[in-house]
Amino acid sequence: MALSNDDGGIHVREVGSYFVGGKSITLADAPSRDAFVAAGRSPARVDPNGDFETGQVYVQFVRLARPRSSLPLLMWHGGGLTGVSFETTPDGRPGWQQQFLAGGHDVHLADGFGGGRASWQRYPEISQAEPLFRTKQELWELFRIGPAGSYATDPAKRRPYPDTQFPVAAFDRFVKQVVPRFRTYDQSTQAGYNALVAQVGPNVVLTHSAAGPLGFASTIAAPDLVRAHVAIEPSGAPDPDSVDLKRLSRIPHLIIWGDRLGLNEPGNSWTELYTSTRRFHDALRKAGGKSTWIDLPSEGYRGNSHMIMMDRNSRQVSNLINSWLKENVND
């Protein structure tokens, strides 16, 4: 079949999905309890004990009829999000999945453990941590769509940054895709992504936000398989003193940051993440590795939010990444 786009169509060989990673666990000796069923109905007695699968990653793939790259692109979403981040944008434009297919890569979109179709563990019997639900205000401010105090329940009263690239009219549609976040799942998610890398074979990993540290770790663990890592506003990076950077000497990295990070503002939450990633980047280059650092405002891209793949200039940024891949990755 062919998916029509501005590049004359994407000719697809196969669309499908699979699960990878995870393990079986047995829950025993947990007490039975009453659980709410529905309004007007008596609670149901629930026995939570038994065998479960946990830690799995869900992957949707699209394989091209004639890929121009032999390296599939693995796309890993941020915290409290899913692979849909890279599909159609909230305001209906083609997302990065389509842009990188047009660039000649097969694309594998992952839902990390606890997100989307990857499911999650029983709470509180297995997972001790309560699922976290971000409010619209928290997302609006944390993702830098508007300054502190600019969110309002009434969309007409919201005050975004005047130059924001985020499609503000589609903010409520974006929030529909947000899922609970589990802060105790990092180890399981890392194991799942490592299993994904091993199953797919040689690849390029593109990560966003909380998936950034997972992508760095997977690259360090399998530098023979991860041929490049593109990190979009990663939530930090490994301490360069704790890893063997020589293992990464042949693996090109591209690290991209948006606008209005507020790095000079006291207590800004982005400062530590930006600084730790910069430390890793500088150390990798000093060790002879390849790492490209792009602050989008320095390149003339103003107003980008944390959700760069959804911003109104997202296609321009994906073109930048595609060009970097062609220049820096041998496949």
UniProtKB/TrEMBL annotation:
Coiled coil: none annotated. CDD domains: Esterase_713_like-1. Gene3D superfamilies: alpha/beta hydrolase. It comes from the Bacteria. This is Esterase.
